[in-house]
Specification:
Oligomer: single chain
Strand content: 25-35%
CATH topology of the largest domain: Thiol Ester Dehydrase, Chain A
Order of helices and strands: HEEEEHEEHHEEEE
Shape: globular
Largest sheet: 10 strands, antiparallel
CATH superfamily of the largest domain: Hotdog Thioesterase
Number of domains: 2
Number of strands: 10
């Protein structure tokens, strides 16, 4: 059994997409990238269960299901196909932070990753703003309250790789939720480090926005990357 605690929300009444995708990836346990797909808004404070599909002729699949058998999300071994978003230096992440649109309008201001209504140690407070050419950037101070023995758990690392992509597609103009995320954490994320987060809008296909994100150490070491599909939704459905 697994339960998504209410603090790990994206929209007010459903789970943060990156966090839930990270839970799925952690349960899958593949070495290398994992692709997680969300099929329903992940319910909060609700008992859920894991199902493991046999590999057969394809990749083994993990499913997160309600007790009624509805599939909340799935995970399989994945592949990253685009070039990583490049490193953003100190001046660029500070410029992105200053330009963060969420300070003025935010569809989900209590989002665990990027919500402005969350306090340090409660939410990640990862604020990435536009820095030109479809890119976002901003700093993320990995708070010790999120760490276990000094290391940030995988679902929280995936949450940090989530919203910089949504802001590259501009949440302030398009209310979106995460549909699919392929990610890989390349090195343990450590508490107390100021990571450099960046996002990029790669393509739009109608209501779908394809984005990429990355996390770097201050010295330019790439420690995590992701590719995402965001789906534009009616904001009233998540009010």
């Amino acid at each position: 059994m697994v339960m998504i605690a209410a603090r790990f929300n994206g929209p007010e009444r459903s789970g943060n997409g990156g966090y839930v995708c990270g839970l799925l990836a952690e349960e899958h346990g593949a070495q290398g990238p994992v692709t997680s797909m969300l099929r329903l808004p992940p319910p909060l404070d609700t008992p859920l269960s894991w199902e493991h599909a046999p590999a057969g002729d394809g990749p083994a699949e993990v499913r997160l299901e309600t007790h009624g058998g509805a599939v909340v999300g799935t995970a399989v071994a994945g592949e990253l196909v685009r070039e990583p978003v490049p490193f953003a230096d100190d001046a660029t992440i500070e410029a992105g932070l200053a330009a963060y649109p969420g300070f003025h309008h935010h569809p989900f201001d209590r989002c665990f990753t990027c919500g402005t209504a969350r306090e340090d140690g409660d939410g990640l407070r990862l604020f990435t703003g536009p820095v030109g050419d479809g890119h976002t950037a901003g700093p993320w101070d990995a708070h010790p309250d999120f760490a276990v023995d000094g290391v940030i758990p995988l679902p929280i690392a995936w949450a940090a790789l989530d919203c910089p992509g949504g802001w590259a597609a501009d949440f302030s103009e398009h209310t979106m939720v995460l549909g699919r995320m392929t990610a890989e954490v390349l090195a343990p994320l450590e508490a107390g480090v100021r990571y450099h987060a960046s996002g990029r809008l790669d393509e739009r296909q109608g209501r779908k926005f394809l984005t990429s994100t990355a996390l770097y150490r201050p010295d330019g070491e790439l420690v995590g990357r992701a590719e995402q599909v965001w789906i534009e939704v009616d904001p009233a459905a998540f009010a």
